[in-house]
Amino acid sequence: MTTTVDFRIGHVLDVLRELPKNSVQTVVTSPPYFGLRDYGLEPVVWEPVVYAPMPGMPEIRVPAWVDADEWAVCDHEWGDWAENHDVRETAIAGKTRTTDRSYGGDASRRFDGNHQKHHHGQFCRRCGAWRGCLGMEPSAELYIGHMVQVFRAVRRVLREDGTLWLNLGDSYAGGREHAAGIKPKDLLGVPWRAAFAL
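The chain above was modelled as a monomer; its predicted structure follows.
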């Protein structure tokens, strides 16, 4: 028996749009976690999205100020590129980093909490659209909105008897703005927020 493998490389939404409806048996994915790693990919313009953060809750639009009709015809005028990379290397007592244990680093090195926090991107001054990479959004709500967009596209191509395997890790609150009651170093609950929204 011969197996054919078809590799398609590109922005996830563009690639999924190319696939026929109900054509995929299994999806196994581990998308970029929120704010944890900059993969150095080319930024893309994300469509605004409306989703319910949990069944029964009112829908929200992200970005909140984007008009979907304006977005579709906008000649984007991008604002300033915002970028923050917080990579901590202060040695203290505590749990060793997973990356050190897994990739041959010195397991005796210990660090002060979450060792990477990243975000970057820019908003259009005209319509409010966001341009950046998945996982680098300035807010967890915008990240969850983009995950909803991706998995709506996955649902279209997934067969009725298909399965989806999603590996998604959590992130800790850092120095950026978060919902009321979330303090720095609190877990954001990204996996369950994504699960409820999906």
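Residues 12-85+114-191 form one domain.
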